[in-house]
Design goal:
This protein is an alpha/beta fold. Helix content is 42%, strand content 15%. The protein has helices spanning 3-35, 52-61, 117-125, 152-164, 177-188, 205-215, 223-235, 244-248, 268-277, 295-298, 300-312; strands spanning 79-84, 88-94, 102-106, 129-133, 170-175, 195-199, 255-260, 282-287. An 8-stranded mixed sheet has the order 1-2-4-3-5-6-7-8, sandwiched between helices. Helix 1 (3-35) crosses helix 7 (223-235), helix 4 (152-164) crosses helix 5 and helix 6 packs across helix 7 (223-235).
């Protein structure tokens, strides 16, 4: 081998090594900001409107996300309950005139319990009590970290344990990350729960990160895998094992699975795989014009009819 070719190969090797290190540093920083909220800021910035130097910084280090705070309080009587879990979990509890049981409403990523109030009112009007927890890192609950449903499953379990002592039917409803947290909790042990309502749960942690990269036109390989790896390392768990598709096989409770056909964050094949793997009674509802959003807002009558008729089957 000539000296020039040897030097060229060495330079190429160093370039590849440097690129690998740079990608890992970027993934580490992005994972940190994606799973650690910043309580020092109150507004989420729009990166598209940032000055060019700021856009470059965001590209390399990720976007700071404000810690979710409750934007409103219930307009009906409620009490606040703090449950012990991996962090103190603050919940709003509201009683209905007719006691058909309690629905636990679990919010999505970047949300908090006030984002579930409109759904809560539907259940209250139908005679169901409601319990609205702030997941770890959100609202009035402890911590500043979010594990996209993995450790939040412990918060779900704390809510079920609290309600189980009351001797009334318990139902779980979750949106996106909240649905994933419910699935993880329900697959790990037999929860004393009547039925689950799951809206747009993602197929796996890897797939949901992959979808996010594709949405902004960035290559998902190897960036998605690096982000998932470092997110798990920083938060003390194997993020590749956070897999609602796999959880579905261990869920024998009745499930109403709902999905918006225009969802760009969760793909239809993810929903189909989850549905096909559910081990108990199951129903699938597709809202044709809905994206990754509240189906209640766009399909109020249909959504209300679907969820209440489902719950009525499991008193």
């Amino acid at each position: 081998m000539s000296i020039n070719r040897k030097k060229l190969l060495q330079k190429a090797g160093w370039t590849v090594a440097l690129l690998f290190v740079l990608l890992n540093v970027m993934a580490f920083l992005h994972a940190r900001r994606f799973t650690h909220f910043n309580p020092g800021i109150s507004v989420r910035k729009d990166p598209s409107k940032a000055p060019f130097p700021e856009k470059v910084r965001i590209l390399f280090t990720g976007l700071d996300l404000p810690r979710p705070v409750n934007r409103r309080c219930p307009d009906r009587p409620y009490t606040t309950v703090v449950l012990q879990s991996n962090v103190p979990v603050s919940c709003w509890e509201m009683q209905a005139a007719g006691n058909k049981g309690t629905v636990v409403l679990c919010h999505g990523y970047g949300g908090e319990r006030s984002s579930m109030l409109d759904r809560a009112y539907v259940f209250l009007d139908a005679g169901y009590n409601v319990l609205l927890p702030d997941f770890m890192g959100s609202g009035a609950s402890g911590g500043n970290t979010c594990t996209i449903g993995f450790k939040e499953a412990e918060n779900v379990k704390a809510c079920v344990t609290y309600l189980a002592g009351k001797g009334e039917p318990v139902y779980l409803m979750g949106v996106s990350m909240g649905a994933a947290a419910i699935m993880r909790a329900a697959s790990r042990e037999a929860l004393p729960v009547k039925a689950l309502i799951l809206e747009c749960p993602f197929g796996s942690m890897r797939q949901t990160v992959k979808n996010r990269f594709e949405m902004v036109g960035l290559p998902s390989v190897p960036l998605a895998d690096l982000l998932v790896f470092w997110g798990g390392v920083q938060n003390g768990f194997n993020a590749f094992s956070h897999d609602p598709e796999a959880y579905a096989s261990g869920i024998r409770l009745p499930v109403l699975l709902q999905y918006g056909a225009k969802d760009d964050r969760v793909k239809r094949f993810e929903t189909d795989r989850i549905y096909n793997r559910l081990a108990g009674p199951r129903s699938l509802v597709i809202y044709p014009q809905a994206g990754h959003e509240s189906y209640l807002d766009r399909y109020r009558q249909a959504w209300t009819r679907n969820v209440l008729s489902f719950l009525a089957k499991y008193p």
